[in-house]
C-alpha cells in the first residue's frame, strides 16, 4: 500500500459529458484510478497519469509565501476545460494526491517517489502537479528508481533559482531539491547532469554560482541568455546536453516566468522567461523521446490572479502531452 496517497473521490469537471471527440474536453476524458488497487496490471499503449503533490512545507521552511499546497486543486479545473486533441487511443488518468498535513517534507517526498515508481510500472507516464519545488526530489527519486541502474537520468529545470542550497542547517526545503539529487549522485559515484534554464542573477547568491562553477555536469542559461539566444540556439544547447544521456526528467518552476504572466507563485519574478520560448524548448525536449516524467510546481493559488498561473501550467501540460503522445516507447 502506498503511504500518504489518496485517490480522488470527487469529479472536478463541471459540465455535460459527451462522446463526440470534436467537442470533447480534458475533463470529459480523464479517468480516475486508484494506484493502491492491487488488481491493476500494466496498461497498453500511451497513458498519462496526473498526480498532485500537496505540500508547500519546503516553501515555508525556505521563508517563501506559502499557498502552493493548493496548486493541484487550481490546475486541475484549468486542465479540465481545455479541448481534447489526443484521440481515442491516449488515456489520461488522474490518480489522486500525495497529501499529509502532519507529515514532513521528506516523508511526503518518499511517498511521492513510491507512487511515481508504481505509475511507471503500470506504463503510466507521470505528470506531477506541485506543490512547492520540494516536489522535484520525490518525483526524480521515483523516476530514478524505476530505471535500470545503467541508464542515466538527466534533469532539466526551468527555474529562476538553482535550488542547490545546502540543507544541513534547515533540512530539505523548496530551495534544496537539486542539491539532494546532487548529493545522492555523489554518494553513488555517478554523474548528476543538471541543466537549469531561466536563472536570474539577482535571485541567486554568489555561493550558488561558485558551487555550480566547481561542480561537474551542472549547466545553466540565465533568463537574459535565453532572451538573447532565441529558441533555436537554446534547442541546440539542449541537444548537446542530452546527446549522451538516456533519459530526462523535466521540471517547470512557474517562478521562471514574470509576474505579468505568472503572478501566483511562491516567489515573484520581475523579469522572467518568455512562456512561448519555454514552450518551444519544452516541446523540443519531449520530441527527443527521452522524457520519462515532468512536473509543474510552485503554483500558489492564494497569490494568483484569476487563475492565470494555474492556466499557464495547464497549457504546458496540453502542449507537452501533444508531443509526448506521439512518442511510443519511453
Ligand atoms: Mn525552484
TrEMBL record:
Cited InterPro entries: HutG, Ureohydrolase, Ureohydrolase_dom_sf
GO terms classed as biological process: L-histidine catabolic process to glutamate and formamide; L-histidine catabolic process to glutamate and formate; putrescine biosynthetic process from arginine, via agmatine
Annotated residues for binding of Mn(2+) 2: 159, 161, 253, 255
GO molecular function: agmatinase activity; formimidoylglutamase activity; manganese ion binding
Pfam families cross-referenced by the UniProt entry: Arginase
Residues where Mn(2+) 1 binds: 133, 159, 161, 163, 253, 255
Statement: the UniProt record of this protein carries the keyword Manganese: yes
Manner of cofactor binding, per the entry note: Binds 2 manganese ions per subunit.
Pathway: Amino-acid degradation; L-histidine degradation into L-glutamate; L-glutamate from N-formimidoyl-L-glutamate (hydrolase route): step 1/1
Domain of life: Bacteria
EC number: 3.5.3.8
Reaction it catalyzes: N-formimidoyl-L-glutamate + H2O = formamide + L-glutamate
Keyword annotations of the record: Histidine metabolism, Hydrolase, Manganese, Metal-binding
Protein name as annotated: Formimidoylglutamase
The organism of origin for this protein: Streptococcus zhangguiae
